[in-house]
Structures are given as C-alpha cells and as structure tokens.
Amino acid sequence: MTQHVLVINAGSSSLKYSLVDAATGEAAATGLVERIGEEQSHHVHNGHEDDQPVADHEAALEAAVQAFEKHGPALSEVEIVAVGHRVVHGGDRFAAPALVDDDLIAAVTDLVPLAPLHNPANLEGIEVARRLFPDLPHVAVFDTAFHQTLPPYAYTYAVPSSWLDDYGIRRYGFHGTSHAFVSGQAAKVLGRDPGDVNVIVLHLGNGCSAAAVRGGKSVDTSMGFTPLEGLVMGTRSGDVDPAIHGHLARVAGRTAEETDRSLNSESGLKGLTGVNDFREVLRLRENGDERAALAFDLYCYRLKKYIGAYYAVLGTVDAIVFTAGVGQHSAEARAAAVTGLEGLGIHLDPARNASHDQVVSTDESPVKVLVIPTNEEWEIARQSVAVLAAR
What we know:
The chain is 40% helix and 19% strand. By secondary structure, the chain is an alpha/beta fold. An eight-stranded mixed sheet has the order 5-4-3-2-1-6-8-7, with helices on both faces. A five-stranded mixed sheet has the order 11-10-9-12-13, sandwiched between helices. α11 packs across α13 (331-338). The longest helix is centred in the last third of the chain and has 25 residues, at 290-314. The chain is globular.
C-alpha cells in the first residue's frame, strides 16, 4: 500500500515541501516558497512558478495546498499518512524521530538557544501545519539524532565540564538524515547488511560534513556544537583556531558576534575567492585564478585529512561515499580527495570517476569509492512511517 508523507522543511524565510511515497522515495510533487515576508515571494511547484507576496509561513503553506489543487496531485485525492517535519536541532533529548505533541513543542522550544536561526522556523512550520492538517499525525525528524550514537569521548570537548552541564556545549553534528540515508544506500550497493559495513560519508554541498559510520551508527562527525566546525564549506570556514575570536577582539576591536558572522557567512570558498558556488570556483581555477586554485586545494586537503582521520577511527573501511551537490558532480574534488591514499586500499578509476558512475573505484580496490545521491525527504518520510508503525 502506498504511504504518502507530506515532508515539510521550514526555513527562516522559505518553505520547502514534498509529497513522498515512503516505500519507493518517489515524489509525487515538490515545491519551494522563497522570500517569505518580502515584497515579492517566489513559489515553484513541480516546475510551475508564481511570484506574489507571501506574508508568513501560514500563507506559504496555504499557497502550497492551493498549488497541489491547481497543478496536482490534489491532496484531497491522496492518502497521506503523516506530515514529516525536518527539525535541525534535537540536542541530546532526541536520538530518534518523534511524534509531535505539546511536550515535543516545549522541548524543541527549550533547544532554541542551540539553533537560534533554525529551530524557531522549524517550530513555526510545525505549528502552521498542525493547524492546516489537524487530523494527520505529525512527526519531527531531527538533523542531530543520527549522531546521538557518538561515544562520549567523541562528542565531549576538553573544556570545563560545567559548560556541558550548564550550556550543553558538546559535539552534536548535523546533516544526520543525509548521513543516515546515504550510509544505508551504500550498504545496499555493497550487497551487505548495514550492521556489517563501515563507511565514511562525505556530504558536500554549500554546507559540508563528514561522518564515520560503523555498522549503521554514527561514531564521529565533523560538524560540532554548530555547523561551523569541520570541512571547508561555501561560506563557512570549517576548522579554525578558537583563539582567533580573542585575537581579533584585541587587535581589530571585533566583537564575538562580528567574528562569528564572518566565519559563518563570509568565509569558506566565498572568503577565499569571493564566490561560494563550487562550480564557479572550478571555472575560475581553470582560467588561472590563483585564489581559486588555493581554495580548491584547501577544500580537498581538508577532505583528505578527515578521510584519514575517520579511517583511523573505524579501523577498517568498506567504502567512502560522496554525496550532495559537489560530492555527486565534481569528479575533480573526488579525485583530489582520494588520490594518494592508495596505501589505505583506495584506488580510484579515472574513467568511472569522470563519468560519475555509482562505483568510481577500481574493481580491485579493497575500499570502494561510491557516488550516491542523497534523499533527505525520503529518509524523513521513511522515519515518519516507522514512528507510526511503532505506536
């Protein structure tokens, strides 16, 4: 029986939605409302575009419902079993998806200080959807939940223990739904049970993160207390010396907020080259731009460091998996990240890599190198149905 889930991802000024078959991952419709609250908003639903003011998230979701009726499929004619919501931060309270109720709303509200830009928007999306679909069960799927299996020595920072107790300072990790989906798909490609497979997943989009997954469970991940830590990203710096904040305060009079904003929004590829689109970085590099060449080298060097680190964490590795926009489409980044690691049993096939095959390593490579598209909407739909089945 087809089990459709309406998947909602509410951002601060956007609303992304999909109607997904939880069994197959097929999306009957997808849509995005952008620039909510601005003078002119943009709405696309299955390729149909519309520009008109959308005042708030409630108006955005109402516009989505109208688009379903106008362009199909009409929600009244589809059996929807649940509404699945992406929630960025579940702290250490949520290690699994959960049914939305008043207690969950209160708990996610308490976690707003850990994700002040994301959780409020996620909550607004949930509240609006509950009003518009009061008879459907709603499920919250947390970005951080997949990484709640990290051992204490992996998630603990070497800072005063009161920081964890009083302020929740620890590694949480993000992109959890993507890492969960992709690591599971990797096991299928290898023809093995997820519990018997060790993989390193590299989610490389505008935001980037790595995860070491042992037997289907995350044991380490590059993003930390916030999504800033780890790999070089589109606008985020990734790993830096934390003393930079204090140094810039002393020598440049910069506040912590100013430095934090720069490290999150003005750094990474954008800080090095002026652009945050990896495709544009590649174009500039091909045209001889030295800053773009440095940015590419730094980006891939950081990838290689994390591959090596997580190889050490796992002990044995069955596959390295590239996913998301850059991971799926940049043969150059994949090659630069793994070339030189032949001593670890990683052997790339240049022809397969250039053609973006699913398996881009050689047949003889002990460690397979895979390219697997992520599908976070499908993972949210599957987890939502699993929650209902467990009731």
